[in-house]
Predict the structure.
Amino acid sequence: MTSTLIRSPKLNAPTIHRLANGLTIIAEQIPVDAVNLNVWLDVGSAVESDAINGMAHFLEHMVFKGTDRLQSGEFEQQIEQCGAVTNAATSQDYTHYYITTAPKDFATLAPLQMDVVLNARIPEDGFDRERFVVLEEIRRSQDNARRRTYQHLSEMAFETLPYRRQVLGPASVIENLSAQQMRDFHSGWYQPRSMTAVAVGNLPIDQLIQIVEGSVAHFMPTAVPKRNQLTPEQPFTEIVRHEHSDPSLTQARLMILWRVPGLDQLQQTYALDGLASILGHGRTARLVKDLREERGLVSSVSTSNMTYRHQGVFCISAQLPIENIEAVEAAIVSHIQALQSELVTGAEVDRVQTQVANHFTFGNETPSDRSGLYGYYQTLVGDLEPAFNYPAYIQSLSATDLQKAAQTYLPTEAYGCVIVKPGK
């Protein structure tokens, strides 16, 4: 079944092709002399139990340790010989593997990419060696102040959802995983039915699809494990404070956060994106202008609307001297109250719309940009339409929409507050 998605005005026009075994192929030809193949899997650390937390990320490492067709290291060797590049990433909600290659090498390298993902052997000796690599990565993350601060944020934002855990998992779990556990995890989740292969670059669409299809058509349709039912956590009902200390810091960190809708309620996220931009994106944003540029209370301040599949987190983060924490928290609350009681200006709405439209356009110029966009939305939302029309959604926001979102999702009498102070 093949369908071409039509959008107007149209920046992107990929073709979707679904195989009988469940694999979704998305292909698009663009006049850039490269081709990117981005293989997305609908599996991340959120599907893990606590007993195997870190398995999805560890498996990402082991995928490159050989198949019946390729010896360990042979895939990377062929990639390098062609001057291509490869990499991978694991998150809470997905894992993806990608290569970028010259068009003339795509027919050779794309089947190898599909082979290592679907047919990983996970040998015992390679497993034990790679375990040490992953454990070292965990150790380095624990030595990283930014990561430690993010973990404090996650534990405040999520009491029960698996997003509170680290994607890397704890060392105590990784030390006790077995190669057979990983083979079982791989055979369960790494199935065409839970995969999207996105090919974007300067080859005809039919050729892109044919190359990818030819490398996986022999796979039979197989069911994937049943997911645990995850539901969003309730918003805060009061102000909850967690305080930590970190001897590596020279200034304090202040994070104020709210539990907000995630990708499961996608339409509710756009106004929150707009509010994040008004408050903390750029030197003229309200918090940046007030707290940093005019009053000098913070070294930096930013706002983000982080969107996971089952929940989002709207977070305002500041780096600041300890003695300014109370004043800055009060100022942030005051700014939120202003958004709730007064409509934002037309100039602010225009700035947000321009920022978003330009960011979207500039971020969709390369094959890897587009394949990432398509893979993300197809995997997590099951639909490409929001990927194309994101700027239109933002540009349709009114000052009233923004005010209503602030009133609904950012109560100033109920939020999470994380403070990390320098020192022991």
